[in-house]
Every structure is written in C-alpha cells, then in structure tokens.
Design brief:
InterPro entries: GlcG_carb_metab_protein, PduO/GlcC-like, PduO/GlcC-like_sf. It contains 14 helices and 22 strands.
Length: 652
C-alpha cells in the first residue's frame, strides 16, 4: 500500500523541498547534542579515528523500552530491532499482537498505482522481524561521524527520479539507485551471526527504503541503529513534498531519544545536486511521554525473540567500531603503508582481505601482481585523502570511502577503508568492482546465458545496443555505464523513452523490481527467507547463480551494483581486474577509482584504465529519433582540498 500523507499548503511544501525536514529547533528537533570534539589527527595522519563508543546492554534496554512506550501510545504493536554499527543484532523485541509478517511493496510511484502482477521482489510475504533488522542496519550502515542518514533518506535516494515527487518526473534517478540490493544475505563479504561478533554483518533484505529506521549515536559517534516494523507494509515514500504521519517512524524516533545524531550532521543538513536530503518526518514534540523502564515492559508488553541466523533471543551489548572484535580496525604498517587505512579483520587479528596477487593466471598471461594490487589501492586511497567530501559535515571535510580491488575471477585482492567511512560502502565497493570487471569480461554473456534468471537480459542488451556481440569483452564497462542500461528510462529519467535492457519497464518498476540486479539474487533471497522461517537451509555465501570461475569463486558473489563508482583495470588492452569505491558522492567515487588506477599505472608503467577506444562511452544507442552515448565516468569539477585544479579526469 502507498503511504498516506497529510498534504501541506503549497508554500510550506515548497519550503520543505528546499530546506529538508526533521531539523530546526525546540520541540521539533530530531538531533541530539553536539558531539565531543574529535581528536586531531596525530603522527602525520590526515584523519582521526572515531572514538570507540558502543551500546551497553542497559542502553539497548532503554532504546527498546522507549520504542515500546510510543508503540503503545499509538496503538501499533510492533517488532523492534537494535543493531550495533557493524550490524550485530543486539536484540529483537516483539510486542504482543504485533504482525508476524509484512509484504514488500508493489506500488509504482510514477503511475500512482499497484503493480497488478508483482515482479522481482515485489509482493513478497516476509517475517516482520526481517524488516525491522533491515531498517536498523540501514540507519547504522548509511551513517558516520559526518552524516546521519535514515531509512527515509534511503527512500529518497534509490528511486527512479531524484527527488521523488509527483512533480519531478523527467529528472535522473536517485544517486544511490540500486544500493538497496547490497549487504545481501548471500554476500561472501558480509559476516553471519555464526561467525561471532565480527562485522560488517549481512541484512536479511539488503537496505531498507521504508521509514522507521534510524542511526544511534553516543557522544556524537555512530554506535548502531534501530528499526521498527508494525504496519505490515514494507515500502517507500514516493513524495518528499509532503509530511507523513508514520507511526513506525514515530516509534523509532522515540527509541533514539538520548541516542540521537548531532543536529548538524542530519541528512537535512546535506545537499546532493542542489537538493536537501530528508532525515525524518516525525517530530519530537509529538511523542508521548517516554517509557524508559525495560523491566516494566519485558514479559508483559512483549518479549525478546530469536531470529534464525541473527539472534538467539538474548539481549547483548554492542561492539565498539575500530576494535578487533568489531571486525574493522586500523591497519598495521605491514598490512597497508598509509597510517590512516582501516581493514576488515576476522576478530582474531587476521586481515580478512589482505593485499595479494591475482588468481586468474589461467585466463590471461599477465595477471596483477601483489605489488601492483598494493599500488592501485594505495593510489586510490591517496586520491580519497585529497578529495572534498560531498555527504559529510562540516563542509570541506575529507572524503571517506571503502575501496575494493578484484581480479577477473571476482577474487578479492584487497579491501581498504577510511577510518570513518560509512559501513554500507564496504560491501558496495566490492559489488562495484566485480560488476565493472564482469561486464567488461569476454565471458560475461556466456556466464549470464548459463543462468536462466539472467539469460534473457543478454539478448535484450544485444537488441538494445544493436550489437550481436555485446557482453563479450569488446567494450569496457564502468558501473556508470552499466547503470545507464539499468534504468527504467534511457536516457536516465527522460520520460517517454524505452527502459534500459537490464531494467524493468516503468510499468513494473519500483525499488523492489529493478530487473537484472534482482533476478541475479532473487533465489538467494527467497531461500534465506525460508531459512529465517525455519523451513530450509540457509542460502550459500556466494550470490547470483553465475557459474563459478576455475578457482571456485563466483564472479558476482555479492550481487551487482548499478550506481557509479568503479572502473575495470587493463594491461595492454587486456582486462586484468576491477576497482570499486563507495561511501561518498558518486562523482567522488568515480574519480577515486579512475584516478587511483591511472596514477598507479603512471607509477608502475604496466597497467591502467581501459584504452579510450574501447570504453563504453564509445557506444552510441540509436533510439530512432535520437542517438545517445553511454557514459563511462564523471568526476567532480574542482574536487581537491589541497589544490584548485579542475577537470582532473579530463583527457586521461
């Protein structure tokens, strides 16, 4: 069902569109107190590590009690989930009378109607607890010390027009279009509860666009997230020009009192392409009196519950991000030469993805060496360190992202992160790297044809591009290129145009039905839902149904991503890998991957970006009355903090 919203007068709606919502002062304020000042970087470093804060068991009890009190006041028995920053589920509380299930939306925003025949992941009946966990993870993973995003923010940035509203058709899609299908339960990067408390953890449904998920902060440091599911409708908000009265969002807002983000980093303080993002439509002055006594509601208003694969039904404390037990920590100098680098760890001291040589020597004569992989990652990290962030406050902060490198088999050759990069970018950067390497690979069509779910998209692409050999390595595809082909309009946002060959037509499209992206993982998602319900075994750790490479690695083992931030890596015109970047603005992500690869090539003289004559921006699509060129990358106009250099990717 579509969310019901109370319309505002035209002037007020226009004001909201410009200034965002959920901020302000006094009773309407969402944000918490200003953070404790971040320590200055030391030892020649450019970044300071986030303070090691965490949620205690008492904190988790208070958060749940506050949510339950508001749910009682609003008459909506709900399921409430709390996670820490790296996605460990700390508790799931089900109120008496709460719905067991929810249904994923089949609402088509542009047509203002339900899809009568749901496709992809539309119209699925799924446990409500899975939705609550996904919302909590969304709030935690999209946020950092420089930005606080909610599941309402996610709704705004994943739809087919940005900003989404009845008056905005004709604009391009959201900047993080497709990010909802990340952190998947089948991903080989994200951890599982059986792996212990290391993170980042998987989400049962990827990231959520349904309001009711917020990040949690202590002393200005993001420490987790809370998610609420109560109405049975797992959907999105198709209109940012009104203010919703959403009970789930109010319940979640009550939950974060005492743990709210600082006001100055809320999403409604951050603009993307001139549009202010949204954090919340709920306001503090409309909350009921807070209930903070967990003992008063535990066992009477509801109870903690176990969820297969996520929690055994006990309430636990969170881990402090940056510690070994969190699964993400600062790298040693032996692991990465830049002192600001963070890596993923197994919780016992071992880097999960150390820099290494490629494994695909059987595919081509000169695979990437360990030294070359190290150089690409280091050069990309240097570009990040110089770049001006788009989504972080205060203004002129340094960008912080995750960077992943893979070979042509999809094997990980290294993962490195900025100290405070949002967690979601870890899995997404790997998705992007693999996506660029896969669609540039000579075996792409062959492998897609071997999977019944993806096979129809091969002929669709060949017909659309007018190229019977498409997807056989003739052209190099960056994620921006593949993203062009994954939109419900081509060119992106332009009404009356055909849908891209990897997308559903607009008559079927919503964020649960994106086309190829969903079809590659739909079987994994359904199997995992069955596992959560106790009906079958869990999904394997590798997604997509694509045949395994000679090493056993599936090239798309955590799904594909369809928004920008990656490029394939070449040596003498031969594909040797892919690099993916995620965590800041998409143009920044593009630049870091592209310039990082270029600079490593300049340093080593042995590798670099794809030759210009095979980049996807040489592909021109004939639409009958127009010819449209695919795009490859787009870099910020004046991106660096240490120079006024402009057009830094031009001509490379």
């Amino acid at each position: 069902m579509r969310r019901i919203a109370a319309p505002l007068p035209i002037l007020a709606a226009f004001s909201l569109a410009l200034s965002g919502c959920g901020g302000g002062g006094d009773g309407n304020s969402v944000g918490g107190v200003a953070p404790t000042p971040t320590p200055s970087p030391v030892g020649g470093r450019l970044y300071a590590d986030p303070a090691q804060e965490s949620l205690s068991a008492t904190d988790v009890q208070q958060i749940i009690a506050q949510a339950v009190g508001e749910a009682q006041a609003r008459g909506l028995p709900s399921t409430i989930a709390v996670v820490d920053r790296v996605g460990n589920v700390l508790a799931v509380f089900r109120m008496n009378g709460a719905r067991d299930d929810m249904v994923t939306s089949a609402f088509i925003p542009f047509l203002n109607a339900q899809n009568d025949t749901p496709v992809d992941a539309q119209g699925l009946t799924i446990p409500s607890a899975a939705g609550a966990i996904a919302k909590a993870i969304t709030g935690a993973y999209l946020s950092s010390g420089g930005n606080a995003f909610s599941s309402r923010t996610a709704s705004m940035i994943v739809q087919e027009h940005f900003p989404p509203a009845p008056t905005t058709p004709g604009l391009e899609s959201g900047p993080l279009f497709g990010v909802q299908f990340s952190q998947l339960p089948c991903s080989d990067l994200v951890a599982r509860a059986s792996d212990g408390l290391i993170g980042p953890k998987r989400s049962p449904l990827g990231l959520a666009a349904d309001p009711g998920g917020f990040p949690l902060y202590k002393n200005g440091v993001v420490v987790g997230g809370v998610g609420v599911m109560g109405d049975g409708d797992y959907g999105l908000d198709p209109n940012v020009l009104d203010v919703d009265t959403d009970a789930e969002e109010y319940i979640a807002l009550a939950a974060i009192q005492g743990f709210a983000p600082p006001e100055n980093i809320l999403a409604n303080r951050i603009t993307v392409d001139g549009t202010t993002l949204r954090f919340s439509d709920a306001s503090v002055d409309k909350l009921a009196a807070l209930q903070t006594n967990f003992a008063a509601i535990n066992g009477t208003a509801g109870a903690l519950i176990a969820i297969n694969g996520y929690t055994d039904g006990t309430l636990i404390a969170g881990t402090a991000y940056g510690t070994e037990s969190s699964g993400i920590r600062r790298a040693s100098m032996a692991e990465f030469t830049n002192g600001d680098a963070f890596v993923l760890t197994d919780g016992a001291g071992t880097n999960r993805f150390p820099v290494r040589a490629a494994t695909d020597g059987a595919a081509h004569a000169r695979p990437l060496t360990q030294a070359e992989a190290q150089a690409i990652l280091e050069e990309a990290f240097k570009v990040m360190s110089r770049a001006r962030a788009q989504i972080r406050r205060p203004l002129d902060s340094r960008a912080q992202v995750s960077i992943s490198l893979v070979d042509t088999y999809g094997e990980v050759l290294g993962v490195v992160r900025g100290p405070d990069a949002p967690i979601f970018g870890t899995d997404v950067s790997l998705q992007k790297a693999r996506t660029a390497a896969f669609f540039s690979n000579p075996v792409a069509a062959e492998q897609m044809l071997a999977n019944p779910a993806s096979a129809p998209f091969v002929q669709a692409a060949r017909d659309f591009l007018g190229d019977p050999t498409a997807l056989t390595g003739t052209f190099a595809f960056a994620d921006r290129s593949g993203g062009n082909l994954s939109r419900p309009y081509f060119p992106d946002g332009e009404l009356g145009r055909p849908h891209g060959p990897f997308s559903r037509p607009i008559e079927d499209f919503n964020p649960f039905a994106t086309g190829l992206q969903v079809q590659l993982v739909a079987g994994n998602l359904l199997q995992h839902v069955g596992f959560v319900l106790g009906m079958n075994a869990d999904t394997p750790r590798q997604c997509s149904g694509i045949p395994a490479s000679p090493t056993g690695q599936v090239r798309l083992a955590n799904g594909i991503q369809i928004f920008p931030g990656s490029v394939p890596v070449y040596r003498d015109g031969v594909l040797v890998g892919g690099i993916g970047v995620s965590g800041d603005g998409i143009d920044q992500d593009d630049m870091i991957s592209f310039l990082g690869t270029h600079n490593a090539g300049q340093k080593l003289g042995t590798l670099g970006n794809a030759p210009k004559d095979i980049r996807a921006d040489r592909i021109v699509v004939d639409l009958g009355d127009a010819s449209v060129r695919l795009r490859y990358i787009s870099c910020p106009f004046a991106p660096f903090l240490d120079t006024d250099e402009q057009n830094v990717c031009e001509g490379l």
